[in-house]
Design goal:
Layout (H helix, E strand, L loop, with lengths): L4 H12 L10 H11 L10 E10 L2 E10 L5 H4 L5 E7 L13 H11 L2 E5 L11 H15 L1 H4 L1 E11 L1 H16 L6 E5 L10 H5 L8 H11 L25 E6 L5 H13 L4 E6 L16 H17 L5
Parallel strand pairs: 3-4, 3-5, 5-6, 6-7, 7-8
Antiparallel strand pairs: 1-2, 2-4
């Protein structure tokens, strides 16, 4: 289908705010730009309570925010110590930008939609912290949640690992790492507009690499800030799609967007997972752009997308196969 008119309006707004062409952004410009964009985020799904905390990471404390859905009339969830499914969430931003605060409303909406206690983690960002700092922090975060589920009010047998954009890169890699290592136990993965392959120039990256919210100049700058020159681009920690063995991974919820430069790699990952025997719920949203799910103040498609993601995760977490 054609580009949605409201998405086109968003792209026009972004273009107008960056006159003079697209130049390589500095990390600070990247962070300011994402923070401004994420002001369009909304939580239309329902109320949550939040609690901030810290856990040990490989290079110091990791800050997290836990979102607990309002139980409403649900007696099972009403008790403060009820053990709900958990959702370890990693924000997008190219591993250079973003944080708990920029993605606060998206995290809250996902918590309500999925019925999970969602824990959103900060992780070390580039260029101050090169690869594999973010991946190391993300692994420590998942291990913390699984190990301390009882204290957090989380059922450690029902933990989702997910994220959006580059946060989904971390989530996909962690699921592969956990499957190979045999731990930690991950019940499902949730990848939203995922970035999964820097090793090849896929058609959607070429077709939508300029003027579709996430530009080639930006993702190349992010990659240069994150990686040292000696790291191969087909390393599965950078490009999870390049892992030759996807068998045995947890069930996946994958949402891509038709006008996203990263569309083809997300679609390809969903297809490869299914071929490998992994349960996959995959939706490619017509007329939408990268990060659309987080821009509900302008794009009404964001709310039903988040609700659908939540419904799909609830179905997986209630399945005996995920227990």
């Amino acid at each position: 289908m054609p580009l949605d008119p409201r998405a086109q309006r968003l792209l026009s707004m972004v273009a107008a705010a960056a006159p003079g062409g697209r130049e390589r952004p500095s990390p600070e410009q990247r962070r300011q730009s994402l923070a401004k964009l994420m002001q369009l985020a909304r939580n239309d799904v329902g109320p949550v309570t939040t609690r901030d905390g810290r856990c040990d990471g490989p290079a110091g404390a990791l800050h997290y925010r836990m979102y607990t859905p309002d139980p409403g009339d649900n007696i099972v969830h009403r008790a403060a110590d009820a053990h709900l499914p958990g959702f370890v969430y990693f924000h997008g931003g190219g591993l250079v930008a973003g944080g708990i605060d920029t993605h606060d409303k998206v995290a809250a909406a996902l918590a309500v939609a999925s019925g999970c206690r969602l824990i959103s983690f900060d992780y070390r960002l580039a260029p101050e912290h090169k690869f594999p700092a973010a991946a190391d922090d993300a692994l420590a975060a998942v291990e913390f949640v699984v190990r301390h589920g009882a204290l957090l009010g989380i059922d450690s047998d029902r933990v989702v690992v997910g994220g959006d954009s580059a946060g989904a890169t971390l989530a996909a890699f962690l699921c592969q790492h956990a499957a190979a290592a045999g731990a930690p136990a991950i019940a499902a993965q949730c990848l939203i507009c995922p970035v999964l392959d820097f090793s090849a120039a896929r058609p959607s990256r070429e077709q939508f690499g300029t003027g579709y919210l996430l530009d080639k100049v930006t993702w190349e700058a992010d990659l240069a800030d994150y990686l040292s020159a000696d790291v191969p681009l087909d390393d599965p920690a950078i490009s999870p799609l390049c892992n030759p063995n996807l068998a045995g991974l947890p069930p996946a919820v994958i949402h891509t967007a038709e006008f996203d430069p990263m569309r083809d790699e997300g679609n390809a990952y969903a297809a490869r997972l299914a071929t490998a025997g992994v349960t996959v719920a995959h939706v490619c949203h017509g007329g939408m752009v990268h990060n659309f799910h987080a821009l509900g103040a302008l794009l009404p498609q964001a709310k039903p997308a988040l609700e659908l993601i939540g419904h799909q995760l609830r179905s997986l977490l209630q399945s005996p196969a995920s227990r």
